[in-house]
Structure formats: structure tokens, C-alpha cells
Fold Tripartite tricarboxylate transporter substrate-binding protein.
Amino acid sequence: MRRQIPLASLACLTMLSLAACGGGDADPAAYPESEITFVVPFAAGGPTDTVTRLIAEPMSKELGQQVVVQNVEGAGGTIAAGQVADEDGDGYQVLVHHIGMSTAPGLYPDLAYDPLEDFKTVGLVTDVPMTIVARPDFEPETLEELIAYVEENADTVTLANAGVGAASQLCGLLIEQATGVDLTEVPYDGTGPALTDLAGGQVDFMCDQTTNTVTQLQAEKIKGYAVTTPERIDALPDLPTTAEAGLPDVEVGVWHGLYVPADTPDEIVQKLTDALKVALADQNVIDKFADLGTTPVAEDQVTPEAHTAKLEEQIDLWTPIIEESGVTGG
Ligand code: MLT
């Protein structure tokens, strides 16, 4: 989707040196002159959507323009990332993505974009624990019982996820690798709708981020087995870690970051980074994150440099694990 060109940018296009105007038709000094779209690669109502909407409001206030959230679902988040990679680098289309940005290169041999080459990083946002959860009447009561149950019932147990490239799929893959069991996966456009089906008893179990599961677990609408972080979390103090409960190899934290197309001028990236810093220091954001089992990253992580370093480190970490599994998104 292409945005209409603002008047100041039209003026910029008439200048002799387009380079002075930065990437595409952008006028970095005047940015932002109109509404900004935050593109979320999964369904509305899910964890990425929740994180995005929480930071969108204070960022909008700081940038002085409306920030609208657009959910572009499909192919485990790769459709949305491909769409933003193809946009003009004018700062008006911002991708909010998570760990999936680092797993996609291993999962998709023909990925339409290169996460490191086709984007500029803006800054990290938050690191969200995952939980292993089940439908309320699922037989196993503990993680140990779940492992035994899936081993005995591998043909019938269903594992929900948000498609190949989603955090839920990566966590499910780690469970399958740790148990040596190949399960029937049920893909959704996001874990928002997957969790609704889980609570309704349509699928057996899944991994999902605390930003989606804490409220449901506290209300006992779903069953919880473990949290996938090295330490227990304050929002769910009774939930053991995967290491405590018998699956030490299933450890994953879902980090989030903001991206813009690679030709976006640095001045625009800096404005987005500054606004993100303000959003992550907002007490309302901090409190809501805490309620959902997470915290904003430290301020020194809200930079393009820290974000790029994290992306590179995570691509190096996950690519061999994914290649060894043989899983591919096509
Ligand atoms: C979502 O927003 O639906 C998720 O982040 C899905 C996932 O990656 O598991």
C-alpha cells in the first residue's frame, strides 16, 4: 500500500538534489507530516498486536501524528515484513516484529527479503516470556505429565501455533525436538485466535507469550504448565520454569523491535527511536507490561545498534537449530 505524498515532500521532489531529501520522497526535517502506520504481522488481539498498541499511543503523542495499527497476517509474519521491505523509506510504514525476524531466514529458503539488508532497525522494545498452556480440560496436569501424554498420544494431540515463523511455532519446534515427538500442528493467523480456540477446547495445547496468556491463566480459562524463561515471573509466580519442570532445552524469550525500509534516512530513524524511548519510559506502558509479565528493555537497548546486534546474534543462534529440524515454511 502506498501513502499519498505530503505537500512538503512534493516540494522536496522539485529540488535538484533528491539526496538532500533522503530516501524516496521523504523530507526528514519535516517528518512526520501525516499519519504513521505500524504494521503488525499477526492477527488483532494477539501478543504482537497488544505490545504494538501499548507503545503506539505514547509514540503518537511524542511524534505529534496519529499512529494507526494495521494487521497484515500470513506466512508466520513474513507477508507483513515483505510488504514493509517494499515500501518507500519515508518513515510512514513501520514494522513491529518479534523473534520471527531472526527465524524466517532459516525457515524460508526463498524469503522475499533479507532482515539485515532490507531494513533499518529502530530499537528493541521488550522481551516477552512464553508459556506452555493447554485447553482447560486437557488431561495432563503438569509438564511432566504433558511430556508422557504427547509421547503416548502423538497421533491425536494437536499443537496450535501462528504459522511457520511465529514464536509459538519456534517454541513448539523446541518441544518436538526435546521430546522426539512429531505432533499435528494447527496454524492460525496469530495466537489471538489460537488462544480463543484453546480456551474453547478446539485444540489441545500451545506455546504463547505472556502478553496473551497471563489474563487467561489468572482467570483459569486455560491450563498452564511452565514458563520458558530461566526464572519464574512475577505475574505467574506459581508457574514453574521449563528447566524446573523437565524441559530445560525449551527456553525462549520473544524479543520485539521496530523496523523501517533500508533506504529510510537516519534522521527519520532517530525520530522514531527517540519516540520509542519516550514510550518505553511511560509509566502506563511499564505498568501494563508488568501486568502482562514483561518489562521494557533497558534504555541502552533502544538503539538501532543494539537492535541490529540482537538481530544478528539471533539469526546465528536459530538458523542452525531450524536447519537441523528440517522444518521449512516453503
Ligand atoms: C501474535 O501476535 O499472534 C504472535 O506474536 C504469534 C506468535 O508469534 O506466536
Summary: The chain has two domains: 32-127+254-325, 129-245.
